[in-house]
Every structure is written in C-alpha cells, then in structure tokens.
C-alpha cells in the first residue's frame, strides 16, 4: 500500500447561512456500529435541532457507504456530505452535519452549498495525516560525519525518530520505501562509506504536530 490519507483525530466545524447554523462533527470509525453510536450521540447532544444529516464510509475498500438527508429535500444534504468525504480521500470516516433552522428557506442549491461548506469546515478542523510506508533505519556514524548526514536528511525531508550519542552517533530515521535505497547510497557516498546502516523493518508513519506517529 502506498501513501494514503488518514483521519487521525476528528473535529468540529460550523457555518451560518441566513441564520441557519450548520454544525459538522467529524470522527474516525471502524464499523457501522461505531458510526450509528456516534450519530446517536450527536442527536442527543443537539436534541433540539431540526436535522442531523450524515455520510460515512468504512471498510478496506469503502464497501460500507451510507448517507442520509434526515428530512431535508432529497439530494441536498447527505449526498453533498458524502461527495466531500469521498473527494477528500479519507476512509473509515463519518461526517454528520446538524442544522438549526434559522427561519429562512435556502432552496435546494443553497442547502447543497451549505452542507458542503459545513462538511469541508469539519474536515479542516480535524487532524488529517499523510501515512507513508517507510523503512525504520538505524544510521551509525562518527561525530565528524554527523553534520553532513543531518544536512542531507534535512534537505531530503527525512524524519528522524531518535538520536543517541555515545562513542558515535546513532540516528533512527524513516526512509520512505520508494526512495530508501537511493537515500542510503547518497549517505554512504557522502561519508565515504564510514556510515553503517541497519534496516529495522517496514513501518507506516505520519506526522502529528511535528512528531512522528507509528503504525506498525
């Protein structure tokens, strides 16, 4: 599996259109049971709202796909939310948009735009992670080569998980699978083969607030 986008942490977004409030709650899900439980929780939280429209996808190939207009005109809420969800490239994810009616009818086009905008706002306020397959690699070098190695890693956007200082320096880094071999050759050449490289196995990782998150 190559790079993919993961909803690591859900969030909430809100827009107001002609005094109607549209509140989007976004959450990762692993099953339909989790989706239904989250929807029920949102209904209870916003018990006095008129509509709770949603869409979700789950499964390795998005085989579970559901959406609901929840009383809005057909095609004006659930489908637009689903289009935002599938267009974002996210999987195992649910978006529910709660509407508090503001007294002014928006029309079908207005509803589509509002539910679409709310869903996008919910995703924007969530933590979406690019997950990258990589080799967790240990680099051992002398102190004299450290600056050169760190410069190359920084230039190539390589993430360092850990740095250990002893008689020499050990860096544990994540080398993206598709460029790992080329990166190692560059480091070996730059240090005249003084660096030693140990492959620690394949992992998938993403970045959260500047810190790597490992998916074994």
Short description:
With 216 residues, this protein is an alpha+beta fold. The chain is built from five helices and eleven strands.
Account of the protein in words:
It is a single chain. This protein is α+β, with helices and mostly antiparallel strands. It is 31% helix and 42% strand. The protein has 5 helices and 11 strands. Strands 1, 7, 8, 9, 10 and 11 form a 6-stranded antiparallel β-sheet that branches. The model has no long low-confidence stretch (mean pLDDT 93).
Distance between the termini: 13 Å
Strand content: 35-45%
Radius of gyration based on Cα positions: 23 Å
Uncertain segments:
none
Please render the helix and strand layout as text.
Layout: E1 4-9, E2 11-17, E3 20-28, H1 32-45, E4 51-58, E5 64-68, H2 78-87, E6 93-100, H3 107-124, E7 127-141, H4 143-155, E8 159-165, E9 169-176, H5 180-190, E10 196-208, E11 211-215
Antiparallel strand pairs: 1-7, 2-3, 3-6, 4-5, 4-6, 7-9, 7-10, 8-9, 10-11
Helix pairs in contact: 2-3
Protein traits:
alpha+beta, elongated, single chain
